[in-house]
Design brief:
mainly alpha, about 70% helix, rod-shaped, about 0% strand
Length: about 100
């Protein structure tokens, strides 16, 4: 479960919108709204990536997809590990000489 966000989504959206529409420096907008300037800088950068204005970072959708794919890969690796262990077990069972029970 992700950690709770320090700033509400409405404040994030308002801050991003103010930086993008007014052209004011990020540090000034952050100070006016009581936000850490580096947090606002990250939000603005992510918003620019989401709108196709930046190519140096993943969009939110791409980031979510990457996270989901990494979880899927981890799950498949666990399943493969279990299947390999099972195949070794059954191979040993097949190779073991069989004896008849005595009467």
């Amino acid at each position: 479960m992700p950690a709770p966000r320090k700033y509400p989504d409405e404040l994030r959206e308002r801050a991003i919108r103010e930086v993008r529409t007014t052209g004011r420096p990020i540090a000034h907008v952050a100070k006016d709204l009581g936000i850490h300037k580096e947090a606002l800088r990250g939000w603005v950068g992510q918003a620019e990536a989401d709108h196709g204005e930046r190519d140096d970072r993943l969009t939110t959708a791409e980031h979510d997809e990457l996270k989901q794919l990494r979880q899927e890969v981890a799950e498949l690796r666990r399943a493969n590990k279990i299947l390999k262990a099972a195949s070794v077990f059954f191979a040993q069972e097949i190779d073991r000489p069989r004896t008849r029970p005595s009467r």
